[in-house]
Design a protein that fits this description.
The chain is about 35% helix and about 25% strand. With about 200 residues, it is of the alpha/beta class. Strands 1, 2, 3, 4, 5, 6 and 7 form a 7-stranded mixed beta sheet that branches. A hairpin with a 2-residue loop joins strand 3 and strand 4. The chain is elongated and about 50 Å long.
């Protein structure tokens, strides 16, 4: 149904994330990829979804529209834990520190999505609560060494081994935790093209 509504638009995914590409493919979208490589720093006064909203829009701002009928989709995800935004770890020690801080606690995974066309921009976000098990150091290092989660916010991918053994409960969108809230994306795209 959505594909029929989008037939007059060229969808551009502003991301090289294999997970976001897969979700758009699974939704049946025809799209091209045109990612930007931006500095993902943000003003230090921003918190929670303000951070991801800011970065998702900055990613969209960095991509030029090449045709009048394009809709660019960009996204940013963070793990919000103990009043701190956990982005992508730079090394093994940082990945361990992030994962250890999540163990035995509940955190929030926040994804923001920016939709951009020639005449408007819309940003929305989705928040999912995740309860993490109290995993052993051995389990954490096994995951880090086997899966090398250096491209993932909070140093974990729920779709990987750690999600099978380390998640007690989620409250909200699963796809949001993976990096793209698909249900919300479809709803917002429908609103976006009808305005």
């Amino acid at each position: 149904m959505l594909n029929k509504l989008l037939k007059d638009y060229n969808i551009v995914l502003g991301s090289n994330s294999p997970r976001r590409k897969q979700y758009l493919t699974d939704l049946g979208f025809s799209f091209t990829v045109r990612a930007s490589d931006i500095d993902e720093s943000y003003p230090e006064e921003l918190v929670r979804e303000q951070i991801t909203d800011y970065i998702a829009k900055a990613k969209a701002d960095a991509i030029e529209l090449q045709h009048d009928n394009e809709i660019i989709i960009t996204s940013d995800t963070t793990v919000w834990n103990n009043h701190t935004s956990l982005g992508k770890p730079e090394n093994r020690d940082e990945a361990y520190t992030m994962l250890k801080s999540l163990c035995g606690h509940e955190h929030e995974v926040i994804s923001s999505v920016c939709l951009k066309s020639k005449d408007r921009v819309s940003v929305f976000h989705c928040i999912t609560k995740v309860s993490f098990s109290d995993l052993s150091d051995e389990a954490l290092y096994f995951y880090i060494d086997q899966y090398k989660p250096y491209d993932k916010a909070g140093a974990y991918g729920i779709q990987e081994w750690i999600g099978l053994v380390g998640i007690d409960r989620i409250d909200g969108s699963y796809t949001n935790i993976v990096g793209l809230p698909t249900k919300e994306l479809v709803e917002e795209l429908l609103k976006f093209i009808k305005k």
